Amino acid sequence: MNTILITGATGFLGGAVTVNLLKKSENNRLLLLVRGDSPAEGLSRLQSNLAKFGVAQNLLDTLTTDNILIGDLAEPERFTADPRLDSVTHVLNCAAVASFGANPYIWKVNVEGTFTFASRMNQVSGLKRFIHVGTAMSCAPEANTLVTESKLNTLRDQHIVEYTWSKATVEKMMSEMLPELPLVIARPSIVVGHSDHGCTPSPSIFWVFRMALTLGKFMCELDDRIDVVPVDYCADALELLLTAENVDKSIIHISAGLNSSVTFAEIDKAMAKASGNVPVGKSYQKVNYRELAESKKNFASLFGPCNERIVLRAMNLYGHFSKLNVVFCNEKLLELGMPPSSKFTDYLHHCVTSTQDSTIAELMAVDFK
Ligand SMILES: NC(=O)c1ccc[n+]([C@@H]2O[C@H](COP(=O)([O-])OP(=O)(O)OC[C@H]3O[C@@H](n4cnc5c(N)ncnc54)[C@H](OP(=O)(O)O)[C@@H]3O)[C@@H](O)[C@H]2O)c1
């Protein structure tokens, strides 16, 4: 029997992998680090999140307050003395401030708290694996490349946002300063939607595509590629990494790779088909920040009620990522036995259906916490 400690189970990736493991609870005892005032409140928030993945109520009811470890990575000393940590065999560390905004907790949680937590787990004698969920963007990739896992970049000025810099920094600290930790770093590329439930679990990043195509303008070329995977694929890969052999000290992309990544033109066609519209196609314009800013006055009429300044800032940030035109090599993951990911355009219609009643401003809030 494994005792698996999962952090971030109230979030998108952590929720998806918790759902997978809950279905195999005969082999796994789950301990879930959740923020909250009490185990009962933490449990209730966790169950509400897992329900978004279509989990049956009777399965949700198998979770009890015994599965909950109340704790906040901003104050790790308040939970690291809990003796239940000493019986953990596997860690899936999905928690982070995953925000492109200027959240004052990014460094405190993603670097300081995460490193303190990893140091504590390094003292657990029966720990077999510590999977840290990083991000493929932690290498600050060079534009127009096929990126391998060998790269990492911890220079602040090479990162578009503090979030990716924080993720790069903690990876380096854990690898260099905790050599005994049975560490596997999983680096997902861009996780958008769920293959069956679309954006019901989370609309994270999907709104960027909707926004760009509604405007008919963005900072990338239409034939630029984007490496997107659905959250259930990411969860299956994380589950595989829990028990995969010979992966200690490895860094592994969870990505679409060359064969399953898609172009913006393909996304345009799939989005149009799912929405009953005509693709933007030839009328699409690649623009720079100044040209985007000139469209600001049209944002509210196109996107619904929104703060135009915040929307422009979001478009600029995500626009910089979009024009990288990078694909993250997935050979290592495929060699471990994972099948290739489905393409974003194969399940995008579920994302359209599940977000049709929400405005852009409502959808984007999840990425600017
Ligand atoms: N989504 C992507 O496209 C993507 C791509 C690459 C890598 N990743 C990585 O995947 C991981 C999960 O991202 P996500 O998209 O699932 O983000 P998410 O939906 O925002 O979930 C973040 C999770 O972390 C928890 N958390 C945040 N601050 C915490 C703290 N101080 N103490 C304890 N828990 C805390 C949140 O708990 P609360 O519910 O209490 O807020 C939530 O459960 C992150 O490490 C991210 O860097 C994501």
From TrEMBL:
Domain Thioester reductase (TE): 6-237
Membrane-crossing residue ranges in chain numbering: none
Pfam families listed in its UniProt record: NAD_binding_4 (PF07993)
Domain of life: Bacteria
Coiled coil (residue ranges): none
Name of the protein: NAD-dependent epimerase/dehydratase family protein
